[in-house]
Amino acid sequence: MRVLVTGARGQVGAELARELAGRTEVLAHDRATLDLAKPGQIAARVREARPDVIVNAAAYTAVDRAETEADAAHAVNAVAPGVLGEEAKRANALLIHFSTDYVFDGTKRTPYLERDPTNPLGVYGRTKLAGEAAIAQSGCRHLILRTSWVYGPHGKNFLLTMLKLAQTRDELRVVDDQRGAPTSSRSLARLVRELLDRNGDTDAVTRAEVDELASRSGLYHATAAGETSWFGFAQAIFAEVARYRRGFRAPRVLAIPTSEYPTPAKRPAYSVLSSAKLREAFGVGIPDWRLGLEESISALPEV
Ligand SMILES: NC(=O)c1ccc[n+]([C@@H]2O[C@H](COP(=O)([O-])OP(=O)(O)OC[C@H]3O[C@@H](n4cnc5c(N)ncnc54)[C@H](OP(=O)(O)O)[C@@H]3O)[C@@H](O)[C@H]2O)c1
């Protein structure tokens, strides 16, 4: 069993490569060895690797920058997934791809379902939605996992930003009118491993397990359970760090509305996703976001 992972230096890609190692042969590619902006390179890498599974963890994720770099975001988030889909089909491989809660406009007030209408508010969400469509159009066996608010021990994310700011600030103003589900990179990697390791034997992933998974190809929401705001997330981060770090002085966190923190890209006010379809289809899911936070903070080297 061979799994090709793209974006292997990203938050999710790095955790995935680690999580799958030992259970499958992992071919981990970063941008230097597989640049998704180069369709010819995608085809060449997949054809030489002949993988059973492709996990696309690479993406153009700079939500605000995408507003002025639409072409670059489109190439990586919309075109490349389609090429990966075509190559997956050619190789009869299963393509596991990540998408985002930002495909929705946030006007709902109950968790979004897969069949709810999409309406992205910015370039990033639009390009990710186009990537979903390109994969479906390619006709390959695929699982598209829409996730949200990803954070972890490395990379650019809200958890690390809060911890950095806490070193120099006594007070932080954090948006309280955007709601979602913080999802740790580690819990996402574990979810993919659980999906692949359908028999739960935890030894090696087999082709039969992959075929079983592929028989339920489609779009699934895959986020941590529960919900909060960025303000609530910040408060939980500092409360959790205080448990581990003796003498830690948390900054005061003030709740502000989005209107007081303008950003180039508009974000949905509500982007909680229901993962019920995933749970029903495969019997797996990601536990409450607070558990993921606890695990992530306890694993931080400096805590
Ligand atoms: N982060 C979130 O809050 C969030 C929320 C919802 C969904 N998602 C989705 O979850 C998936 C994983 O996201 P993440 O948080 O792990 O993102 P990330 O930490 O930003 O990692 C993305 C990786 O993709 C790589 N990449 C960018 N352009 C590339 C290219 N042209 N060729 C090859 N690699 C390229 C980046 O490499 P460089 O470091 O060289 O740029 C980076 O290592 C993505 O599909 C993302 O859209 C993320």
Write a compact overview of the structure shown.
The chain is of the alpha/beta class and 303 residues long. 40% of the residues lie in helices and 18% in strands. Bound molecules: NADP nicotinamide-adenine-dinucleotide phosphate.
Describe what this molecule looks like in 3D.
The protein is 40% helix and 18% strand. The protein is α/β, with parallel strands linked by helices. The strands form 5 sheets. The chain has a 6-stranded parallel sheet, sandwiched between helices. A two-stranded parallel ribbon has the order 6-9. A two-stranded parallel ribbon has the order 7-13. NADP nicotinamide-adenine-dinucleotide phosphate (NAP) binds next to helix 1 and strand 4.
Continuous helix count:
10
State the helical fraction: 25-40%
Estimate the strand proportion: 15-25%
Shape: globular
Evaluate the radius of gyration: 19 Å
- Number of beta strands: 14
| Major sheet | 6 strands, parallel
- As an assembly, this protein is single chain
Please write the string of helix (H) and strand (E) elements.
EHEHEHEHEEHEEEHHEEEHEHEH
Q: List ligands, each type once.
A: NADP nicotinamide-adenine-dinucleotide phosphate
**Sheet/helix structural class:** alpha/beta
Spatial strand sequence of the major β-sheet: 2-1-3-4-5-10
pLDDT averaged over residues: 95
- Distance between the first and last residues' Cα: 37 Å
Low-confidence stretches: none
Explain the layout of strands and helices.
Elements (H helix, E strand, L loop, with lengths): L1 E5 L4 H10 L4 E4 L10 H11 L3 E4 L13 H22 L2 E7 L22 H16 L2 E7 L2 E2 L6 H9 L4 E5 L3 E2 L2 E2 H12 L10 H8 L3 E4 L2 E2 L2 E2 H15 L7 E5 L19 H7 L3 E3 H10 L5
Parallel strand pairs: 1-2, 1-3, 3-4, 4-5, 5-10, 6-9, 7-13, 11-14
Antiparallel strand pairs: 8-12
Helix pairs in contact: 1-6, 2-3, 3-4, 8-10
Bound molecules: NADP nicotinamide-adenine-dinucleotide phosphate (NAP).
